[in-house]
Amino acid sequence: MEEKLLIFVQGKRVAVKYYSDDWPTNNAKLAFEKFVFTKTVKTNARTEAEVTLLENNIIIYKFVQDLHFFVTGGEDENELILASVLQGFFDAVTLLLRSNVDKREALENLDLILLCLDEIVDGGMILETNGPLIAEKVTSHSLDADAPLSEQVMQLCFDLVCVWEAIEPNATYFMKATA
């Protein structure tokens, strides 16, 4: 399989995984992503996933609020399998984000989204397409059950600050503890 799993916000990459060397350089990958985004942005893939063929690539995509989800594969790939990968990914993300699938939640939980990508496809091999099962695997990996609760909370806070630092490098962060 040579799928690519992509998520965009307003034409900018949020998360992406490539499983083939069709685009060997970062510039080639960015050009492909821009091409896919510009060709699909004006469509209405809000309720159901859409399928299109662009430059010998099957593109399965779905838009939710300000996020655009894509799964792509070669023209010889099975569209139904690619669609099940997209649906499983979308279902898992929806569960992990507690049905609040938007830009802010996606960026705050980027680590969980990247873990979803890893649970779905590994080295081009589809491992799982069941959204609830993917979400369950991700949540079991996201926290160290043996760590004290205080360490788990601090790790989550640190992860959140790291994500926001990537978005807004000059922001000021503070935490307030309440009794």
UniProtKB/TrEMBL annotation:
Keyword Plastid found: no
GO terms (BP aspect): intra-Golgi vesicle-mediated transport; intracellular protein transport; retrograde vesicle-mediated transport, Golgi to endoplasmic reticulum
Gene Ontology cellular component list: COPI vesicle coat; Golgi membrane
Lipid bilayer topology: Peripheral membrane protein
UniProt-annotated location(s): Cytoplasm; Golgi apparatus membrane; Cytoplasmic vesicle, COPI-coated vesicle membrane
Keywords, in A-Z order: Cytoplasm, Cytoplasmic vesicle, ER-Golgi transport, Golgi apparatus, Membrane, Protein transport, Transport
Superkingdom classification of source: Eukaryota
Boundaries of every AP complex mu/sigma subunit domain copy: 6-140
Role description: The coatomer is a cytosolic protein complex that binds to dilysine motifs and reversibly associates with Golgi non-clathrin-coated vesicles, which further mediate biosynthetic protein transport from the ER, via the Golgi up to the trans Golgi network. Coatomer complex is required for budding from Golgi membranes, and is essential for the retrograde Golgi-to-ER transport of dilysine-tagged proteins. The zeta subunit may be involved in regulating the coat assembly and, hence, the rate of biosynthetic protein transport due to its association-dissociation properties with the coatomer complex.
Family indicated by similarity: Belongs to the adaptor complexes small subunit family.
Name this polypeptide is given: Coatomer subunit zeta
Source organism per UniProt: Glycine soja (Wild soybean)
